[in-house]
Amino acid sequence: MKKLNLKRDAIMNSAIELFSRDGFHKTKVIDISNHAKVGKGTIYQYFRNKEQLYMESIKYVFELYQTYIKKAIDDEKTPLDKLKKYLYVSDELTSKYGSVVFALMKDMRSNGMSMFDTLTEYENKDIELVLKIFEDGLKENIFKDICPRVATNTFIGAIRFHMGNKYIKPKGHIEDNDLEYLFNMLLYGMIKE
Amino acid sequence: MKKLNLKRDAIMNSAIELFSRDGFHKTKVIDISNHAKVGKGTIYQYFRNKEQLYMESIKYVFELYQTYIKKAIDDEKTPLDKLKKYLYVSDELTSKYGSVVFALMKDMRSNGMSMFDTLTEYENKDIELVLKIFEDGLKENIFKDICPRVATNTFIGAIRFHMGNKYIKPKGHIEDNDLEYLFNMLLYGMIKE
Amino acid sequence: MKKLNLKRDAIMNSAIELFSRDGFHKTKVIDISNHAKVGKGTIYQYFRNKEQLYMESIKYVFELYQTYIKKAIDDEKTPLDKLKKYLYVSDELTSKYGSVVFALMKDMRSNGMSMFDTLTEYENKDIELVLKIFEDGLKENIFKDICPRVATNTFIGAIRFHMGNKYIKPKGHIEDNDLEYLFNMLLYGMIKE
Amino acid sequence: MKKLNLKRDAIMNSAIELFSRDGFHKTKVIDISNHAKVGKGTIYQYFRNKEQLYMESIKYVFELYQTYIKKAIDDEKTPLDKLKKYLYVSDELTSKYGSVVFALMKDMRSNGMSMFDTLTEYENKDIELVLKIFEDGLKENIFKDICPRVATNTFIGAIRFHMGNKYIKPKGHIEDNDLEYLFNMLLYGMIKE
DNA sequence: CATGAATGAGAATTCATTCAT
DNA sequence: AATGAATGAATTCTCATTCAT
């Protein structure tokens, strides 16, 4: 059982909120300490430096996200149901957490190589999750002759772009039934045959 | 005929290269001046400040990109050919410019609101371009009952994610024939019916 | 009771000394921080920027000067005694503070409008102080038919020029008994009748 | 006969106008070159550097001022007439040239020691001019037992302070007949006997 | 002579991090 | 453990001056 640490949690929560809203550079250490209602020095009791706080924030959010999404997918039986679940859960988490994950993902890429590796690591986990579904589906012979990696990229790329636009442009965001449209289109294609 | 300005061009080219490689914050003004082999002060003869240089760099690359892609699409007759062209040209430009466009796109989102508007403006132009194709295709009755905006998001999102990954992970990037896979999958779907 | 703040005071004292000796532009922020034996950044903990430090320095010195001079004048009964006191106190403060006030006054006028207003404000207070004495004296019918504002300008102008010269040219400065000469001359005139 | 040089004169005139309006530091070399409608480099054909241009501007104005005032005084016979003339000519030049002389005088003191000496030199000439009048008057036995140097300081200080206020605060400036008041007050005193 | 593009020394300011209390 | 005052390395930007045309 993880030891309870209120101060540390307060700092992390503030860091997540501010980093995902303003990015790494615009967020100052003092902003986080003010928001968390702790002293500036206290942050350095729990985190080596600003960069580590950033990494830990990302780690925390990603792990939450991936634990949640993995569990949801595991509850489903067929690859199709799993894919549909992935889509709906992505949307659900985006609504709930205001795209924190996607915002952090975008921001990370701007901030140097050490962070980069962690991003890649987490992103790869996400990719592998979906890739596995496609590979299973291929084995079960429910898919056409598709490349599972290309399919994965397509699937994730489409969802992320939707969610990103939803986050950035609330006016033109996708409607609830858009998810059905999206899912059907990806699976059954766009064109009349 | 635009008067040619060697120094200004050298600065812009260096800025584009460094900003897209390292992002706005990691790139120092002095780095750009060294790379362009000009004095630090010279940059301020042509650009009001670092932020403006950044904006101008983005503007330049985006306009090049959009001019090129628009022309390529106009050369095609059918919506299907246009979509295919969009895909191939995106890939071509990504190879050529080392994903500068996508790198800048990603970086912009991390750097404050004034830049954000410009991003949205350029991104919207890109979206409208594809949206138009889908709308025309719907009129010509070649598509299923799809929502053109959802289709557009899917199409662009899938492509960008591919290109982004190609840029980030050069080792695992998509092969040439992946583009065919991608295109067919998007149009004809993934699932056997 | 004002909380004492040693660092802030050290900075202000150094600023007053250097600004009045070298003026706003020749005095660098690093000079002040070195002189005050604090870090460069510490100055920015207490003052928004160099200009604010300058303003606060001026404010501090002027208020000290005006509080002192006002108190001294209030202790005197007749307009004549008040004028004499004003003269002697001006001289006393000049000796004590090395003409900081006059030096700052002179320097302020060279440094833009926002400062200018503050100068005018403080200078007006000084002028009003003397003007009041002349007006009271006129009511008491001890003065000839003089214009109180012209008299005030004359009185202050003469004193300032003396003090200024004393500060600039220490060799040729006015002797102690010069003050008596000055006072008598102003009151009784120069010319034989 | 001084060789005519239009460019140099244009630069000097602009320099005088801008330096006296904005001071040494706020006036940029490019401002002067723009105002004079010459190239920036041209200034360096005629003046070693910005400081020398400043010095030459001051020199030019002061010499004009002193030549004029000296000539005016020489035309008068008695010390009293000379003093009155000095007062009226000071006022006349202030109206005409907008206090350029006084503005430059004030600004000089803020700008380092090399300039300082020149100021002192010119100021001393002005002081000597008036001092001579008082000394002559004393010889002619028209003055009370006054110290000529104190009288000089008083006389000049009073006038400068008037002119300075006139320049800075146009609303409250001295009226024409104030000059008479001023003159009579200085000569005959303020107090009833 | 005249010019203005090019330059870099120099200055103000920011902010992550340290450390004495 | 918690704090925030103190710090200075690092960065952007300015502007007097030079010099090739």
From TrEMBL, chains A, B, C, D:
Q: Does the keyword DNA-binding apply?
A: yes
The molecular function terms in GO held by this entry are: DNA binding
Keyword terms, alphabetized: DNA-binding
Q: Which domain of life is it from?
A: Bacteria
DNA-binding stretch(es), residue numbering of this chain: 28-47
Q: Identify the residues that the record assigns to the HTH tetR-type domain, covering every copy.
A: 5-65
**Family matches, as Pfam families:** TetR_N (PF00440)
> What PANTHER family does its record include?
ACREF/ENVCD OPERON REPRESSOR-RELATED, ACREF_ENVCD OPERON REPRESSOR-RELATED
The protein's name in its UniProt record? HTH tetR-type domain-containing protein
Report the source organism: Anaeromicrobium sediminis
Q: What is the lineage of its organism?
A: Bacteria, Bacillati, Bacillota, Clostridia, Peptostreptococcales
